[in-house]
Amino acid sequence: MSTTPTKKRLLSGMQPTGAGKLHLGNYEGALKAWVRLQDEYEMFCFVADWHALTTLATSGQSINADAREIALDYLSAGLDPEKCAIFLQSEVPQHAELFLLLSMLTPVTWLERVPTYKERREILADREGGEAGVSYGLLGYPVLQAADILVYRAHAVPVGKDQAAHLELSREIARRFNHTYHVDFFPEPQAVISETTGTLIGLDGRKMSKSYDNAIYLTDTADEVNAKLKKAFTTPTRLRMTDPGVPEGCSVCQLRRIYDPNGYQTQWDECRAASRGCVQSKKETAEILNAALEPLRERRKMYADDPAQLDLILKQGAQKARDTAEDTLREVRKMMRLVNVF
């Protein structure tokens, strides 16, 4: 029989892409909220290695190794395996089964109108030399995303302010299933909006992104952070120390604002008044940032130095996820008349 969770459920996850590392933008935009939410929800937190295949299936990249790095980043950020199931998506085959079943109910027109599909289709077509490089998996990506959420009958998904609309298709699929089989089975997952305001600026003044090579990673050492801050973008019109700065557009000042919320205003005022140089600001900001990252480095080292412990965490997380997901699939199979309902 299906069980009703005593605590509302939340599902979250990230893809292992690129070098398999998360940066401060990921931390501020998602991970910090996840750490807070694990005390409020029954939380399932996965590494979306199947999703990574939609763009990396032919790349030869080691997705499994990258997935383990993401899991280490989760743990270093403060996700607690005693409070939150941490696992790899590919270790829970029920995701794939529900993806298949929901695919039978999802109109192709719903998928073709998804903006991210159009964008990724163009990128892949250019990279792979034509439309033949665009897979069905890319088109069906939102259905797999819906299955990831619905297989746990999750009530909520943490997202940034600019991502809330992405959940609407998952809600539409949940509504279609419930209407088709005359049940009130799948909750319509709601967005839990991250409290982070705005986009974290990268070291070159653009959005912090792995693809721009302008990020500070959670794995960066203190020396690496210092070196990156020395080269960071400040105010382009500030050629001399006596020129006034514009902290609102300075990547160093923006990092100071986030990691020194009670003390950044002095730096900003002195920057505007040209009474403080960029070298001093970069040095102080690097010290503040390294102090904030040190607990993450210590937690990461603890788990990285003990691979067996990481294996156990992922194994136990996957087992809890499979048990919960199978409970959902057992009911879904009955509703879709795939097993004897008597």
What's the architecture of the largest domain, going by CATH? 3-Layer(aba) Sandwich
Order of helices and strands, N to C?
EHEHHEHHHHHEHEHHHHH
Oligomer type? single chain
The third-level CATH topology of the largest domain is Rossmann fold
Beta-strand share of residues: 5-15%
| Poorly predicted runs | none
- CATH H level, superfamily name of the largest domain: HUPs
**Strand tally, please?**
5
Which descriptor suits the 3D outline? elongated
Q: Name the CATH class of the largest domain.
A: Alpha Beta
Could you characterize what this model shows?
The protein has helices at 24-37, 49-56, 63-77, 94-103, 108-112, 115-128, 136-139, 141-150, 168-180, 222-230, 251-259, 264-272, 278-304, 307-335; strands spanning 9-14, 42-47, 84-88, 156-159, 190-193. With 342 residues, it is mainly alpha-helical. It has two domains: 9-200 and 306-335, HUPs (Rossmann fold), CATH 3.40.50; 222-299, Orthogonal Bundle (Tyrosyl-Transfer RNA Synthetase), CATH 1.10.240. The protein has a three-stranded parallel beta sheet. Strands 4-5 form a two-stranded parallel ribbon. The longest helix is centred in the C-terminal third of the chain and has 29 residues, at 307-335.
